[in-house]
Amino acid sequence: MLSTDTDILAAAETWRRDGHAVALATVIETWGSAPRPVGSHLVVDEAGNLLGSVSGGCVEGAVITEAIEVIEAGAPRVLEFGVADETAWRAGLSCGGRIRVFVERLD
């Protein structure tokens, strides 16, 4: 089982060497109750295989879809998921938060 970002990045490099197109998603900002810290990684290949996590399952599906598009287009992008502002906490939402993820193709 892959347990560290170092393991995940090493596996991504192995995929690349084996001829797979690979995208790397990295958490670049969090606010509130985001389940993964800044610097967490998810790697995705062109078939949608993945290693790692950027949100503990909350937004992985959307990130995988975007990562495959980044692989095809080659242009990196920043994704943002979550509540709109701090008022969500005052309203008592128990699972609020926000996460920004940078997705890039690894060449």
UniProtKB/TrEMBL annotation:
Domain (XdhC- CoxI) ranges: 15-82
Ranges in a coiled coil: none
Domain of life of the native organism: Bacteria
Species lineage: Bacteria, Pseudomonadati, Pseudomonadota, Alphaproteobacteria, Hyphomicrobiales
InterPro entries: MoCofactor_Util/Proc, XdhC_CoxI
Name by which UniProt lists this protein: XdhC family protein
